[in-house]
Amino acid sequence: MTGVVRLLDAIAGVGRAPSGGYERFAWTAHDLTLREWFAAEADARGLSVVVDRAGNQWAWWGDPDADGPGVVTGSHLDSVPGGGAFDGPLGVASAFAALDALRAEGVRPGRPLGIVNFSDEEGARFGLACLGSRAVTGTVGADRLLALRDGAGDSLADVLGRVSTGSARGVRVEHYGRDDEALARVGVFVELHVEQGRYLADLPADEDAPVAVGAAIWPHGRWRVDLAGEANHAGTTPLAHRHDPMLDLARLITDVRAAAEDAGALATLAKVQVEPNGVNAIPSRVRAWIDARAESEDAVRMVLSTLSGPFGASNVGQVAGPGRSERPALRSAGPTGGWEPVQESWTPATVFDPALAARLADVVGRPGSDLPAPVIGTGAGHDAGIFAAAGVPTAMLFVRNPTGVSHSPAELAEEADCDAGVRALTAVLADLLTRSRDASIENGVMDRMPAGPVHDPVLDREGR
Hints:
Elements: H1 3-10, H2 29-44, E1 48-51, E2 57-61, H3 64-67, E3 70-76, H4 89-104, E4 113-118, H5 131-137, H6 142-146, H7 156-163, H8 180-184, E5 186-194, E6 211-217, E7 220-228, E8 232-233, H9 245-263, E9 266-275, E10 281-282, E11 285-293, H10 297-308, E12 342-347, E13 350-351, H11 354-364, E14 375-378, H12 383-389, E15 394-399, H13 415-434, H14 441-444
Parallel strand pairs: 3-4, 3-5, 5-15, 6-14
Antiparallel strand pairs: 1-2, 2-4, 6-13, 6-15, 7-11, 7-12, 8-10, 9-11
């Protein structure tokens, strides 16, 4: 068992659900156990651990305050409900393994190296992805973040107030939010991640590559739709007299699919809240959340424009799929002018530093070839995207996933590919850490830092 696999195996039992997936939600007992594991691994390597004002953990080899800014790598340890073993943890485990490899190779860094564990990247508990990186960069205001509530009704402020000891020590509600000291320590950030797709797995044999470099993250957002109904008894209310929002939900689901197909986008409706959620009660209200993303912002906006328009426009009201046909009228007493989705978050397209990406592609290369590593885009959001948008020179490495599946127990990275990822990350870090400051990344991007609060163009999130 190699170093990175051994590190992953050490946490394999934390938060494991009966489904085989993981339930590692922010600031729960499972998450705190993982934070303790991170701190212990850092301590075993003689690294100094700092928790920033947003609750992210940073482990430093060297002094970033005296000798920085430094080079940072890492990812996150939390999961979506039923998530896989590699999304996030592979990046953190690979960071520790790469540091071990640098030391074994006798690399003498010219600047500090940091390993980061971002808090609540998935957004599974409070409904906002990349919460820790958005908080530390100031792209979302602290007051708004602290007011977010989980499914039990607890606010982030309440939760942080209860856990601000041990591995969460230093997270104080009154100081929560953007941390200029933490940001000033980061000269460049490289995040390694399992690929969430099959680009690498589907390459022809003569172009084989276990690792790719990230080019960009697609624009993506989340919207909420509220469907009103009238609560009543399931056994005594005639069908003709019902105001059942579940019928509206059924149509909304297929409308989302049809609108996405028309726009050439990806759209998903997978989270629903039903009130009162009783098996023998007609619901009084249904809330549904739509996730939409595409290569272009125009395509995403087209999905929402179609859903917001009058019923009967475009393919709304048609059954999605080949040979679409008009569906029977299912709607109850909901809205008649359109679905009226409410935007809860929006992240514009993020393009990673092209010069840095090209340089990493050359450093990583392909086994048995003089070709550079592939440079690919992704539809998945990452903390790297938040840092790139905040002005930090940022890059990503993707490790081959033979199933192409993510956010599922079927997510996979083979041991040989995990090792290839560590070798690639080690080579990248060695290159970044040992270049003289006069020759720092393409005209000195190590010195380009955000100069003040950076605002997410959207994220003026409206409620939950």
